[in-house]
């Protein structure tokens, strides 16, 4: 590992871990040893942490089957300054401002290690970067996975979070014939119109008059099957999140019942994007945000030690955009 003299203190650092899965009260501030970057990794002094929907799903215990255990440190994306590098990483990265993906955890901490990182433009803050980084990538590739083409109508289900907001903007910028959104209030609907939405629907999606060629679903949950009815012939639904939980076991019967409409259903995860493709898209989106061509929406900044409060706000559906945690120090 390469590091500059006294700029890194390898002492105990603050982090937030899940001590008991379920409610946000199961999260706790803990002391951990500063992580050491392995080969291909950098160590980042964290300045901003994105609170994502997947963090909430993991904290609830919905993904226990994937091996998450008590003591897990949440957080999949951070921004900050590189203070040390592992083997096979150029030492010139030290001192640079970066955005980084930490995988399925490790981000809710004062220091984090990552091997997937990109340099930030000088006029893009770390706070804005973590409100855009993962959300923008999934929105971009989610639309591509749906084979979206200009002129088609798009419905974004659950559009008030950072992922939904980025999908609305990218669909509009990509020449969608219409961009409908489901959201919980008219006030949120007006904010989404300012970002590119052309039609605001209630959460059921029933208030719309027309069908949709593409549905990008951030919610999933028990109501997912009903949205097959909102698709036009040859329509495609892609689920990019599951903040509403799992769909019913028999949800496929709804799409089979509409066999003659030739509907398609798929899921999409950013985990399937290659490092090179992901880096290219993030570089492009960060530059666009720095130029003001993409709007980044930060709901609120909170201290890292108030991560449980951030999750309570997420559970209550209060968040428009992304909450960003900021370590104190």
What does this structure look like?
By secondary structure, this protein is of the alpha/beta class. It folds into two domains: 12-119 and 297-326, Medium-chain alcohol dehydrogenases, catalytic domain (Quinone Oxidoreductase, Chain A, domain 1, Alpha-Beta Complex), CATH 3.90.180.10; 136-270, 3-Layer(aba) Sandwich (Rossmann fold). Helix content is 24%, strand content 27%. It contains seven helices and 16 strands. The protein has helices at 53-60, 126-145, 162-173, 186-194, 252-257, 275-290, 307-315, and strands spanning 12-18, 27-33, 42-50, 72-73, 77-85, 97-101, 111-114, 116-119, 153-157, 178-182, 199-201, 212-217, 231-239, 264-267, 298-303, 322-326. The strands form three sheets. Strands 3, 5, 6, 7, 8, 15 and 16 form a seven-stranded mixed sheet that branches. A six-stranded parallel sheet has the order 11-10-9-12-13-14, with helices on one face. Strand 9, helix 3 and strand 10 (178-182) form a beta-alpha-beta unit. The mean pLDDT is 94.
List keywords for this structure.
Quinone Oxidoreductase, Chain A, domain 1; Rossmann fold; single chain; 7-stranded mixed β-sheet; 6-stranded parallel β-sheet; 7 helices; 2 domains; alpha/beta
Order of helices and strands: EEEHEEEEEHEHEHEEEHEHEHE
SS content category: alpha/beta
Name the CATH superfamily classification of the largest domain. Answer: Medium-chain alcohol dehydrogenases, catalytic domain
Helix coverage percent: 10-25%
> How many beta strands in the DSSP annotation?
16
Low-confidence parts, pLDDT < 50 over ≥5 residues?
none
Number of helices: 7
Question: Shape, please?
Answer: globular
Distance between the termini: 25 Å
Q: Beta-strand level of the residues, as a percent range?
A: 25-35%
Residue-averaged pLDDT: 94
What integer value in Å does the Rg equal?
20 Å
């Amino acid at each position: 590992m390469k590091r500059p003299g006294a700029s890194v203190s390898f002492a105990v650092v603050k982090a937030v871990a899940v001590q008991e899965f379920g409610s946000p009260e199961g999260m706790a501030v803990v002391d951990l040893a500063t992580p050491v970057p392995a080969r291909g990794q950098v160590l980042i002094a964290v300045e901003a942490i994105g609170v994502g929907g997947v963090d909430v799903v993991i904290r609830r215990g919905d993904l226990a089957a994937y091996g998450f255990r008590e003591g897990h440190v949440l957080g999949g994306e951070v921004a900050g300054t590189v203070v040390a590098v592992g083997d096979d990483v150029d030492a010139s990265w030290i001192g640079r401002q970066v955005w980084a993906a930490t995988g399925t955890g490790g981000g809710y901490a004062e220091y984090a290690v990552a091997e997937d990182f990109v340099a930030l433009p000088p006029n893009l803050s770390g706070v804005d970067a973590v409100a855009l980084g993962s959300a923008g990538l999934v929105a971009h590739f989610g639309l591509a996975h749906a084979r979206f083409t200009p002129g088609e109508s798009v419905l974004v289900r659950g559009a008030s979070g950072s992922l939904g907001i980025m999908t609305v903007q990218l669909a509009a910028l990509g020449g969608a014939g219409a961009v409908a959104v489901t959201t919980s209030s008219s006030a949120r609907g007006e904010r989404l119109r300012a970002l590119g939405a052309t039609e605001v629907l209630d959460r059921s999606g029933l208030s719309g008059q027309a069908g949709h060629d593409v549905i990008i679903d951030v919610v999933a949950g028990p109501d997912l099957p009903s949205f097959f009815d909102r698709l036009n012939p040859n329509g495609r639904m892609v689920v990019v999140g599951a903040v509403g939980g799992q769909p019913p076991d028999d949800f496929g019967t709804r799409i089979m019942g509409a066999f003659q409409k030739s509907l398609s259903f798929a899921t999409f995860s950013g985990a399937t994007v290659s490092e090179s493709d992901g880096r290219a898209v993030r570089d492009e989106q960060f530059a666009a945000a720095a130029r003001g061509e993409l709007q980044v929406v930060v709901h609120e900044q909170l201290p890292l030690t108030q991560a449980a409060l951030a999750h309570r706000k997420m559970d209550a559906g209060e968040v428009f955009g992304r909450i960003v945690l900021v370590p104190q120090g």
